[in-house]
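Archive entry: two folds, one per protein. Generate the first.
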Amino acid sequence: MLLEVRHVTQYHYAQQVRESVMELWMQPQKSATQRLLSFELELDPPSQLFSYADSFGNAVYHFDVPHPHDRLEIVARSAVETQAPPPLPEALDIGEWDRLRSDFVRGECFDFLRPHGYARRTAALDAFAEAHQLDELRHLDPLSAARQLSSIVYGAFDYEAGVTEADSPIDLALAEGRGVCQDFAHIMIAICRDWGMPARYVSGYLFTDRAQKQDRSDPDATHAWVEVFLPSLRWVGLDPTNNIPAGERHVQVAVGRDYNDVPPSRGVFKGEAESQLAVGVSVRRARAAIAEPEFMRMSKPAFVAGAQRRRSSLAGLAEQQRHQQQQ
C-alpha cells in the first residue's frame, strides 16, 4: 500500500518568545514491511536541521530558533510503501513461556521488560486485571494470551479524546473507562511486562477509510499501538485501540518504552508567554508511484513565490552539506 502522510504541528505563543529548541520523532522507519520513499521537514521560522539516531534506533531531528518569534510551524511530509506482515500462526506451543524467560530474551529486551514511565503496574491496574481475570490468560500460549489481552482492552474502554492528556497516568483511563490509543497501549504494555513478555510502545499513523468507519481511532491524529516480543516470531504488532494486528495500514515511526520516549515533538522555549498547540494529520493513498529514490529530494527555493515565506527542509540541508563537501 502506497501512502502519503502530512503531519502539521503549530505552536502559538501569546507574546514573542526569545528562542525555541525542539526535537522531532516524525520520520517513518525503514523495515522489511515498510519502505520509506520520501521524507521532508519544513520549518517556519526557518532553522537548520540536525539529526541523530536515538538508543532505540529511531531517527530524531532537532533544531534551534535563536531569535524572537510568536509562532512555530512544523510540516512533515512522508511517502511510504507498506506491506502486510507474514501471517501469524493460530497459536504457539506453551513452551514459548520458557523461552521468554531465557537469558537471551532478558538481555536483548531488557528495556522492554521493566516498568517505565506511564507503562507501570498500579493498584488500579491490578483491580482491572482481577476484574477481567487476566491471570487466566497465562494458561494460554503467549501469542494467544497477547491477542486475548488486546481484545479485552478494546472491549473494556471507549475511545474518547479529551478525557486524558499526553502526560496522564493510566489510572485516569482506568477510572474513566475511556481514553485514546496512547492510554490503551500503556495499559497493555504494563500487563505484558508484568507477565514477563517484552512489550514496546509504537508511535506512527494509521490509514483509515472514512467511508467504512471500521476504526474507532481518530483519522486526523497520530496513532500508537503495541509490539510484543515472542522468541519464535520476534516482534509482533497488536493494535488494542481497534482490536486488529498491526498491518499494512499502520505506518511505524518510532519505538520506545512508552510515549515519553517517542513524542512526535518535544521542546522548550525562553520566555513568559502562554503557548497553544494545534496538530493536524492526514494519511491517504498516494495517487501515483513516487519517483524519487529513498528520501533525499532536491532543495526548494529559499522563498515561496507570492507568500515570500522562507522555509528550511531536510532536503535543503542535505543539498547544502553536499556542496560543502565538494568545496
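Generate the second and append.
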Amino acid sequence: MLAYFFGSKMAADAFFVAFRIPNLLRRFFAEGSLTIAFIPVFTETLTRKSKEDAFELARAVLTLLSLLLVVLTLLGFCCPPGS
C-alpha cells in the first residue's frame, strides 16, 4: 500500500524518516529505561511512603518529560535541518 501511494521516490523516504525519530523516542522512554527505572521507584515510594508522595513523584516526572517534549518540538520547528 505504501508503494502504491508513495512509490519509491523522495516522498516515501520522507515518510519513513518522519516516523524514525518518534519511534526511537517511544522505544527509549515508553518501553526502555524510563519504564525500567520509574516503575520500581514509584512502587517503592507508594509502599514506603504515602500515596500522595508517589503521585507527586509521578507528576514531577510527567512535568519534566512534558517540558522536554515541548523543547524538542520547538527546536524541530524553529531549527529544521537545511534551514
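Annotation attached to the second fold: The two ends are 32 Å apart (CA to CA). The mean pLDDT is 84.
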